[in-house]
Amino acid sequence: MTSRTKATSHENGTDLFRRYLASQNLKMTQERRLILEEVFSSSEHFGADELHLRFVKKKVPLSRATIYRALEHLVKSGLVRRVYLDQKKAFYEHVHGRKHHEHMICLSCGKVIEFSDDPLERRQDKVCHELGFRPLRHSLRIVGLCSDCQ
Question: Considering the domain 3-94 in this protein, what is its CATH number?
């Protein structure tokens, strides 16, 4: 979560997003609310075009531009993280209420395996402290072959 949206544990994503938007002199429109709800309806990674297709299938008229703008605000608010699971396009995942995690990506089948490792997190914090570096965010992406594809 960014410093702009420091949250207490009882705040929900809608409240945080509304507060972020207000700080940017923007309103919580029906379109932004629908996008927020759809993003938080699953913990799966998704692309912006995939999100657009979900709305097309539901016959909800939202333009790609509206979706891209809303996703950018969700990222800046700290509720959603942009991740690069491959080198071609960005994916998104909601992070509010979820433990920080890293990703392993299978080059053969495309499977994404999420993992958390507290000793690794502590080591990264220690290295940053030792080097006088103030981290704002990080991501670790390990690319290889999953056990099914080896």
Answer: 1.10.10.10
